[in-house]
Amino acid sequence: MTDVFITDTKKGVSKAVNEIFSNLMKTEPILKSSKEVYIKVNGIDFKKHAYTSPEVLKEVIIYLKGKGAKIYVMENSTQANMTRIVFAITGFKDVCDETGASIVYLDEEDTETFEFKGKPSAKDKSKGYNLKTFRLPKTIVKIMKNRESITYINLPKLKTHSMAGVTLGIKNQWGFPQHADRGKDHNYNLHSKLVDVYEYIKPDICIIDGWGGGTIHGHYPPTAWEDRLVIPFNILIGGRDTLAVDVVGARIFGLTIDDVPHLKIAYERGLGEGDLSKIDVIGKDLNDYKERYDWDLLQEFPEDVKIIKGKELLCKEGCENNPLATLQVFAYDHEEKFKGGWFLVMGKGHDEDIVEQLKNEGYTKGLVAGYCAIDEVGEKLRKEFGKRKVFFSGDCNNLAETVKAILKLSKMTVFDLVSLSNEEVMSLIESAKEHGSTALTPL
Q: Is the pLDDT of residue 129 over 60?
């Protein structure tokens, strides 16, 4: 049996964290010979409920410091963002400064190239995409080469995911590949690629942060809908087998391994325990979690944005739910600034008279998301409406281009999205660039 521990955070985050580590210590020490510990948070973005709780991170650091560890906190935030900005807004930087932990901005590091196991499709090859390789930052390579002496702890947030089903321990490691390597095959192949990264580097310990709740209907909930999309689970889930921890985390949402393709693939590859009957869940009875929650986006979008989906091919893992999740947040969390009146075209298999349909409904500007739609109707739309009014977001998931386009179409700016002053944001961006950041941003 593989042990996975669930602790209740209602009795205090510090006590819950200590309980997890105390249970893990019963089998083997947490620290290895170097006493170096690298913690991977979920710092996808500074959006409320989207990132690891700073409170949980702080208590994990305090516990490990008490054991004599030297702590490093690392992340490479999602496309369209820079890790320095995320750490400044979320409070991660404050926690690290207060506790003496070092910050590793993975988007600012030199990299080494590795191969994916999956093969590109014929269409991908025809476009010249090399989908077989991706780059990992030097810190990740260092951990991979020193597994006997370095402890690596994965600290994801308890969330469903509108493209991957859940984003727990295995999905959290998608922050390791560089931005430019994430989007080209962010389609139906995503699930196997998540497992490819996991096969290269598996955490020593995974602790899922469900303090304050977990998100449903995706990983990036509009704050305006938090009453509907955030469930107050108030738990931590921890163990040494990340796949087993993820399977339990998925079960909290009522999902099985068959509902989450990357977990099933990891189990089939023999990368951990995926059979729930062989996982000893200690601390909570999973039978108490009776409800099944949806991982897909709520199908609610602004009425004045015309959404056109291809009838032949449309991958939720990229061209569909990537722009739709962005649209939801911008439209409902910035309702006073957001402007509609534009179209969003995605996928493959569109009507021949798409231009006439849009003109008849009064739409003359918009976004074409993904190379399938760009190849099929992109130039036709630009020829009719003009290059300056029809934006392209290339690859299968180029969030930087998607965000830039939606901001322009909705008459917003990137500064509308952040809680910092323009001067603070620009200072952080300049600092990141000075340190070599390769982040793809809408600026």
A: no
The pair of structure tokens assigned to 269 is: 């590859």
Q: Which of 87, 131, 129 is nearest to 107 (CA)?
A: 87
**In terms of domains, do 47 and 114 share one?**
yes
Does 134 score more than 50 pLDDT?
yes
DSSP class of residue 388 equals T
- The tokens 């190849």 sit on which residue? 375
CA-wise closest residue to 263 among 254, 419, 129, 272: 272
Question: Do both 263 and 160 map to the same domain?
Answer: yes
Beta-bridged to residue 307, according to DSSP, are: 344
pLDDT digits (tens, 9 = 90+) for 36-65: 999 999 999 999 999 999 999 999 999 999
Q: Taking the model in full, what pTM does it have?
A: 0.95
**Is the predicted pLDDT of residue 328 greater than 90, yes or no?**
yes
Confidence band, pLDDT 50/70/90 cuts, at residue 128: very low
- For the chain, what is the domain count? 2
Between CA 17 and CA 6 the distance in angstroms is: 10
Owner of token pair 């534009």: 342
Tell me how far apart the alpha carbons of residues 54 and 90 are, in angstroms, rounded to a whole number: 7
Half-sphere CA count of 2, side-chain side, radius 13 A: 21
Distance CA 295, CA 60 (A): 28
* Shared-domain flag, residues 320 and 350: yes
Whether 108 and 211 map to the same domain: the answer is yes
420 inside domain: no
Q: Which of 47, 2, 360 is nearest to 226 (CA)?
A: 47
Helix, strand and coil content of the chain, in percent to the nearest 5, comes to 40, 20, 40
Per residue in 265-321, pLDDT (tens digit) is 999 999 999 999 999 999 999 999 999 999 999 999 999 999 999 999 999 999 999
Residues 22 and 127 in one domain: yes
Residue 424 within any structural domain of the chain: no
Dihedral angle, C-alpha 98, 435, 219, 349, nearest 10 °: 180
Choosing from 224, 258, 288, the residue where a domain stops is: 288
Distance, CA of 65 to chain centre: 28
Mean pLDDT of the chain: 95
Phi, psi for residue 23 in degrees, rounded to 5: -65, -40
CA distance 281 to 283: 7
Structural domain including 14 reads 2-288
Q: Give the number of other Cβ atoms within 10 Å of residue 372's Cβ.
A: 25
Please report the pLDDT score of residue 175 as a whole number. Answer: 97
List pLDDT tens digits, range 236-274. Answer: 999 999 999 999 999 999 999 999 999 999 999 999 999
